[in-house]
Amino acid sequence: AQRVTQPEKLLSVFKGAPVELKCNYSYSGSPELFWYVQYSRQRLQLLLRHISRESIKGFTADLNKGETSFHLKKPFAQEEDSAMYYCALMMDSSYKLIFGSGTRLLVRP
Amino acid sequence: DTGVSQDPRHKITKRGQNVTFRCDPISEHNRLYWYRQTLGQGPEFLTYFQNEAQLEKSRLLSDRFSAERPKGSFSTLEIQRTEQGDSAMYLCASSSGPVVGEQFFGPGTRLTVL
Hints:
The complex is a heterodimer. In chain A, 0% of the residues lie in helices and 43% in strands. By secondary structure, chain A is mainly β.
């Protein structure tokens, strides 16, 4: 069955430290992977998707099909990055998203 | 247009009662999704519509759950004979090409079943 795993429920770092939020997926087809973010008291929103290969707010994510991973990285964390981050998978046969359980990122001053 | 809206934002009901939630998507979006989120979990897909057609339903969606999108605009999600396990945040999202996978989420309806 298709699955997205985010092994860390909480990741706490100091401002300026590098950040890596882990995401692994299970899907035998050609997946599309996304990172969604939810800031405090805001709605869930798209942060980035692997197909666009862009950096958003300093975050990047590379799809590694060999390791079935899509880790989110940022070299220097900022306090405003504190939020809940969800990795999501879209299968090639559907528009629905399959979400991981999320990682809360806390960036301390 | 301020984005996807959901009504009500909160609903408290007694076990066994029926509840109905409404979602108004972004006006030009032809796809509409319902997800359920429980504490400590990510959103879990329930169903989605393309225009008025319900194209996919999760196996998690029991017979007590029904969703409609009669004119391809707003949608309703009804839960009959609610159970305590139905307590969750119910999220609605909408989308339209060209950015595949970009779904715009509403604020959610928090359901508490006593």
